[in-house]
């Protein structure tokens, strides 16, 4: 969120993506607009986890410990 982006680019992208002025966007929407302006593709949490597991050569499974009452 600290990268400098030309203001008209933010306004244009916010109008294209959400049909709202940049000032009326939520923080999540502003992040999406800024990412598009910088050419960064955001991924969801599920996509991030899938990518992490795909990058690992092996996965060590930790058994779940449950306690009986």
Q: Secondary structure elements and their pairing?
A:
Elements: H1 7-18, H2 27-38, H3 45-55
Helix pairs in contact: 1-2
What report would you give on this structure?
There is one protein chain. With 69 residues, this protein is mainly alpha-helical. It has one domain (7-55). Helices cover 51% and strands 0% of the residues. The longest helix has 12 residues, at 7-18.
Number of helices: 3
Average pLDDT works out at 82
Q: Could you give the count of β-strands?
A: 0
Beta-strand residue fraction: under 5%
Kindly provide the radius of gyration, computed on alpha-carbon positions and rounded to a whole number of angstroms. 19 Å
Unreliable runs = none
Question: Which structural class matches the secondary elements?
Answer: mainly alpha
For the record, the count of structural domains works out to: 1
Give the fraction of residues assigned to helices. Answer: 40-55%
The largest β sheet comes out as: none
Alpha-carbon distance between the termini? 48 Å
In short:
The protein has 69 residues and is mainly α. The chain is built from three helices and no strands.
Question: Which descriptors would you attach to this protein?
Answer:
mainly alpha, elongated, 69 residues, 3 helices
């Amino acid at each position: 969120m600290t990268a400098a982006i030309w203001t008209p680019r933010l306004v244009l992208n916010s109008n294209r993506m959400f049909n709202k002025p940049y000032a009326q966007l939520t923080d999540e929407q502003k992040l999406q607009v800024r990412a598009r302006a910088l050419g960064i593709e955001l991924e969801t949490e599920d996509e991030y986890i899938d990518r992490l597991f795909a990058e690992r050569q092996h996965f060590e499974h930790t058994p779940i410990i449950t306690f009986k009452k």
